[in-house]
Design brief:
Blueprint (H helix, E strand, L loop, with lengths): L9 E4 L3 E6 L2 E6 L4 E5 L1 H9 L4 E2 H11 L4 H17 L3 E4 L2
Antiparallel strand pairs: 1-5, 1-6, 2-3, 3-4
Helix pairs in contact: 2-3
Length: about 100
Amino acid sequence: MPEVISMKSLVVASKDNVSCSLGDEAAILHMRSGTYYGLDPVGARVWSLLEKPRTVEELRAALVEEYEVEPQRCEGDLLALLEKLLTEGLIEVRSE
């Protein structure tokens, strides 16, 4: 059964990845599949925050503080990004 991401979920980058910064963006190599992924500047910031486990609420709070974005819009976009990263095996989710 697929993991469901909520605002209380604890998320962290999977150890099966190698990543680097490319200016404001990020490149990620998923070691198991050999697939490369690219993240725009906001996605790269989320990725850097995922270096250590954080709740989705903590991620949203950090992004709302750093960017001019409404909390509700940020939440929706963040959850969509995290779902995509989870589907690709780039992050792990732990429910609180």
